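Pair request: fold both.
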Amino acid sequence: MPDIYSILAKNKENFGQIVSELSVDTIENRTPIEYKEEYNGERRRRKTSVGWREPKRLEVYSDTLVDAKGNPIRLDDKIVDVARIVTNFPKKTVRTAAAFMMGGKMNINADNQDDGFNEFKNVWTRRLKMQSILKCFARKVMSETKAAIVFYPATSVHWSGAKTTTLKCKILCLPDKDNVLYEFYPHFNDDDDMDAFMHRHHVLSDDNMVRERVIIWTRERIITAMQTWGGWEVREVVNPFGLIPVVYSELNAPIWDEVSLIMDAREMRLSRMADTNDYFSEPILKTFGDTDLPGKNTVGKEISFPVKVDPDTGKEFHGDADYLAWQQSIDSVKEELSETRNEQFSGTSQPDLSFDNLKGIGNISGVSRRFMMIDAEIMASENMEVFGPAIQRCVSIVCAGIANITNIKYRQQLIDNWITVSFDSILPKDPVEEANVLSIANGGKAFNSQQTVVSKSPLTPPGDVEGELKRMEEDEVKAAERNNMVGMTFGGV
């Protein structure tokens, strides 16, 4: 694959050709729009999907008109729509996977805890709110198979006239409207390193016309072009980041695709069961002989049957009524629905965290709880093979933005530092169990220092280990003073 510089040089006079060469998806035959539609409830991506259920056609015959042979005349067929039950399994799977990866406490660590690191933490957590951005980004990738995060500087003007430049970011994904151009493509060189990224989208120009705009990021330059009647208006500026300020991730298929056929089978069974229930769930009354049925507004309803006498035998006889019983066999249906549900969750390595499943597990230990969710944590670890490098690239871009654009005084500190971001497990912790472990570690022959034990305690205020140690020392001094006062009192007596 030619690198971006050869493409730009070869097509220098024809920007449209540059756009054409870069508008190539990295995975062939991928249809992100269909994945997004299925994620949002559309079920027509496969012929086995419930969205392809055809309405029922019923034959209708006249009650009064007959043909020459005396048979009822057939009228226009009646079209009856069928149920199409759609579950939220794709959304539930994506939400759960994103939460197991990035839903826990976010930890930011560095080799050097200096002012540059503190500035990075402030930008990362407060201004960019990266934990929310990363979770949204992961959901987009896992549902649409590709997404990107673009970082850019934004300048605001204070009322006093002072200008302030800050870092911002936005997520590139499929647009909400179908008729809007919004495409993005990465370009990789022969070493599989991204050497360019292109974003094509529609904008409203100054003359109130909808035009196509293209932005191409390279390591050295940012190229912006607007399509006009006569071609392209191209503008180039120096890339202030010093690297491509884009994070791109992709998957071959949405994460529920492995169990999509099972999902189709379950939704089809639910739909057919709904049709059956609609037809048979209402009670049907069978009557035998003459009867006098009460009206629907009658209070204290009863059914009366006239008593008649058989003229031949002289015996009395009368009609009767009974409800038509639905002799259904639902055990196999229940088994099928249960098995397909279990296969859906196990096939995606996701736990079924419904209320009915969780209400009976009791107060189990932390280790047992982790073993119950080990499959989901294995899947989260596997997903981090895709999103781990994306997170580290976000760190590199934010560091470059601070060092080269917003606060260059921290440049050397950020260059010399190694900053990492990780996430704790989202599974709840048992504070009593943790306290017991810390008590053992701190008692008798101590396994850890006092500072380590205090830092691990769930009751220690975040980031205030030194303050907690100081308060503990003050408590010990006060306790010693009280003991001395008690000793003096008894001695005096």
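--- second member of the pair ---
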Amino acid sequence: MNNDDMQPGGPDESSGPNFEELQRLLQNMLSGQQDAELDPTVLAKAAGISADPAVLGALFSTLRGAMSNPSDKIDWSVARRTALDAAGGDAGADAGPANRAFPLASLWLDEATELGPVSDSPRTVNRIEWVQRSIDTWISLAEPVAESVSQALMNSMSTQMPEEMAAALQQATPMLRSVGGALFAVQLGSIVGQLSGEVVSAGDIGIPLFEGAGYEGGALLPSGIAKFAEGLDQDLEAVTLYLAVRELAHARLFRHTKWLRLHLLTAITDYARGIHIDTDRIEEFSRDLDPSQPDQIQEILASGALFPPKTPSQEAAHERLETMLALIEGWVDIVTEDATSRLPGAGAIAEMVRRRRATGGPGERAFAALAGLELRPRRLREAAAMWRAVVDRGGIATRDGLWSHPDIMPTAEEIDAPDLLLTRIGLLGDGTPESDPFDDELRKLLSGENSADGPGSTSDSSGDSPAT
């Protein structure tokens, strides 16, 4: 990530907060210098927030509210307003290709999966609608981290504040918590608004973000598809049809696998609850940083270096999350591959989708820096190969039947070694159940195959009949 990408207005303008600068600003406020330092532009730069005038105005209003009416809870309505402001408009996007693609995509999917169509019809949405339908999910994912960030700022300040100012800090604690939460909420809103300009569908991130009746059938963003197709030597109609197949496959999977959404979001929440900010690392970095080189701060924040090593419970939650994301995306990949086999250029479009997912967009990277959580599957190709092996040996119904209950889902070990899964579900290379060695020997004994003179022998070597 280079410095050019991080300039205000650039694609990565919301990479993460500068904890040292926030701490300095808050200390100055406590010491009576707030009139000189409470500049929205300065605070926006320290918090990694866009310098857009609308965002700055919202930030200033939010901070004044946080100071005048402090609260222990974060006002997440700030994130919603900021996200809607940052999303902007895309009224000029043509929804025609998407609406034409949905019926054909559904027909092709009927041949590629046992999971039938969803009762809700697929639809097109604009950036504003995407924000409105997804913001509550983003808030639920980020809330545990916001609490950790606010607590980290308070802990760091309390250890470095002069003793004569300890009383002032104690009195200002509610206000500072409220300010810290407001900064986090504004930044989250900026990131979600930015993401609305990168995604192409409701399921693009890999998790079901939309909430509310009528949106379970899948959704495409025509503006995002047009942006994605700009770098491809492919017809827009073909690109839209391919992405429609992917989105409808994703929607069918989550609609018919009723336990999946809760299972996935629980793994994310379990991981996020264990996140905390390493204040010792903050102090260590603050001693070594050169204020004249802001790119140092940006690199540290983007690398996630302020998040300490994962705890054992976090490691377990992270492994469950990565495994499930890989299984979901791997299944969607091969179902889409089979369904679009007659679509010209499908292979090239699929490769671009894989590359895009592997690198992530600026907004996705910003969320990873903000929350310390990546939502990209790391073993996607292995998971897709495993699903393909199941189809080759057991058919589509066997593959899709594995989603019926979480206890029979493939494990991380089975992704890496598909033969383990094939053995567990009773499949061999020819697709027949594996025979039991004891049954084989018993069959041979009953048929006389184990006698000394071969099958059907009834006499011993002396010619006498054997004793009964």
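Observation on the second member. Residues 127-160 form the longest helix (34 residues).
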